[in-house]
Amino acid sequence: MHLLREAEAHLGERIWEHVEGIEALSVEYWNLRKLIKEREQVRAKLLACEATLEQAHEERARLLNTTPEFDQELLDQQTVLLTELEQLAYKRDEIVAQARETRRAYIGLKMKLEVLTKEFTGPAPDAEQVHKVKARLVELRTRFSELKQERIHIGEMIEAGDAKVDLIDNKLKAYRQDRRVSASAAFQLIGEINRELSLLRAESGVLDTRMRQLFAEIGRYVSRHANLDPVAAAAAASCRGMVDVMRELRRSIALNHRLAG
């Protein structure tokens, strides 16, 4: 099954540009068109940010090289703190993303539970399945609370780090008043760019995940209908061998299910 899912995603990625004429895949096709454009925009912003960050680091290096020795130690401390803050900010972004996915999973399971317990019109719902769903909902709720506490804790750490950075800035003012503005601006710019990079990388990751899902849906549909739908067959013409292998995989899976039953 894992190999089949990988093949579906790979097939969809290779042929998605040829499925515009398949009405059943119009949503996936146009969503991909939109997502690819968004991803290109995000990558362009990433490249621009990385170039700006490189310039900012060069400027910071120049400032550090022209800094008097007596405040070099303070600047080193500030550099370490800023690096730690960048890592904390990235970790906080990861936690927020995990919390978002946890919440989505919780909402999906909650809807499933409602269908099983309230809107079920057939035979009585599977009590074991309902129990598993409820248990999983408790797990997700607990996990969401844990992630929330982690985010709060990291936020407090970031605030404490910002306070330390501010304290060092105040000390530097006493030593280098004439260079304080330019040095502070360089460090602040690096922090802002890294935060922007973290957000853009997270956004790019979300887009890649969604695109892979759409590729898989396209690959699944085309591989299943290539022998029945001429348009699907034409779309998969360059990957006919892969489609044949996928059909055999499905047959093997079905036979194994039959044997297991």
Task: Report what the structure shows.
The longest helix is centred in the middle third of the chain and has 49 residues. Helix 1 crosses helix 5. The chain has two domains: 147 residues, no CATH class; 109 residues, Helix Hairpins (Orthogonal Bundle), CATH 1.10.287. Helices cover 85% and strands 0% of the residues. 18% of the residues are buried. The two termini are 17 Å apart. The chain is built from seven helices and no strands. It is elongated, with a radius of gyration of 27 Å. The chain is mostly helical and 261 residues long.
> How many structural domains does the protein architecture include?
2
Secondary structure: number of strands: 0
Envelope shape: elongated
Cα gyration radius (Å): 27 Å
**How far apart are the termini?**
17 Å
Approximately what portion of the residues adopt beta-strand conformation? under 5%
Please, how many helices? 7
Helix-strand sequence: HHHHHHH
Mean pLDDT: 85
Which residues form runs of ≥5 with pLDDT under 50?
none
- Residues in helix, %: over 70%
Assign the structural class, choosing from mainly alpha, mainly beta, alpha/beta, alpha+beta, or little secondary structure: mainly alpha
- Major sheet: size, sense and barrel closure? none
